[in-house]
Design goal:
Blueprint lengths: L3 H26 L7 E7 L2 E7 L8 E2 L5 H33 L3 H7 L3 H4 L9 H9 L15 E2 L5 E2 L2 H12 L4 E3 L3 E2 L4 E2 L3 E5 L4 E8 L5 H16 L8 E5 L8 H15 L2
Parallel strand pairs: 10-11
Antiparallel strand pairs: 1-2, 2-3, 4-5, 6-9, 7-8, 9-10
């Protein structure tokens, strides 16, 4: 079932494309003569191009081969203008569809009087309620050694490294809900992924492990063994499991992590 958030996400993606295309189109217009368009005419096995300066100009001025770049720019402008019109049309269609879209599970629940809502067990919770219940679930935390260094995110969550602070803060910035070191029961043992994320589209969890000391051979071997354990439990990369790495020479790339998190946000339905 198509969700409201799917449509909203699609609109946001299209609006981003619209802004980029419109900006590039305006830049291109500065590098060509003011005109009404470009005419292409078949000439043997190739084409000749003509600059049309007025709407009444049916033929146009011939563009010499040495000035072909002008023809390319004019053609690109025409394409961009058509694309802008198509994107705008698509956005309007999606907004109209969004206005008509309703969630039958939420609609049925909202049609119940308040006094009866607390008596029923909804067949499907709204995304907001589901996310709230998921974030507030109880679980046994891994805990910290007394001598362990103390690292805290902007929201006061204690984590184990500066890199985890950066990842957690980026997730918070993008409003991606997560749980820190929530226990995960694999076939062979229980592990504590650094970050457990919620896929609200499919209502399942996605696990993110950051391996931050890959210079150390023992640490590196344990990291790859842990990855194998995830895979043995049918948790595979970018389906149910994400891993990121760093070394002393190649520290965490915050720009790349933010880009990854933005892609994850769309995938998870936020």
């Amino acid at each position: 079932m198509i969700s409201e958030k799917d449509i909203i996400n699609e609109i946001e993606v299209l609006e981003d494309h619209l802004r980029c295309v419109a900006s590039e189109c305006e830049k291109l217009k500065r590098h060509v003569p003011e005109c009404t368009g470009l005419r292409a005419a078949k000439h043997g096995n190739t084409y000749q191009y003509f600059l049309k300066r007025h709407t009444s100009d049916s033929n146009g001025v011939y563009i010499k081969k040495k000035d072909r770049a002008t023809a390319c720019t004019l053609a690109q402008i025409e394409y961009d203008m058509k694309l802008i019109a198509e994107i705008q049309k698509r956005i309007e269609e999606l907004k109209m569809f969004l206005a008509m879209l309703g969630n039958p599970f939420e609609n049925a629940f909202e049609r119940m009087v308040f006094g009866k809502r607390e008596l029923i067990n909804p067949h499907r919770l709204s995304d907001e309620v589901y996310i709230s219940k998921w974030r507030n679930q109880d679980y046994t935390e891994l805990g910290f050694d007394e001598k362990a260094a103390e690292y805290f995110t902007r929201n006061g969550l204690r984590v184990r490294s500066k890199s985890e602070i950066l990842i957690a803060d980026i997730l918070d910035d993008l409003s991606i809900p997560f749980l820190y070191e929530k226990p995960l029961h694999l076939h062979s043992e229980t592990v504590h992924p650094d970050f457990t994320l919620l896929d609200i589209k499919q209502r399942k969890e996605l696990y993110w492990e950051h391996f931050g000391m890959m210079d150390d051979m023992d640490y590196r071997n344990k990291a790859f063994l842990k990855i194998r354990k995830y895979e043995a439990s049918a948790l595979f990369s970018h389906d149910s499991f994400i891993w990121t790495f760093e070394t002393g020479r190649y520290p965490l790339d915050t720009k790349a992590i933010r880009k990854l998190a933005k892609e994850i946000k769309i995938k998870l339905g936020y």
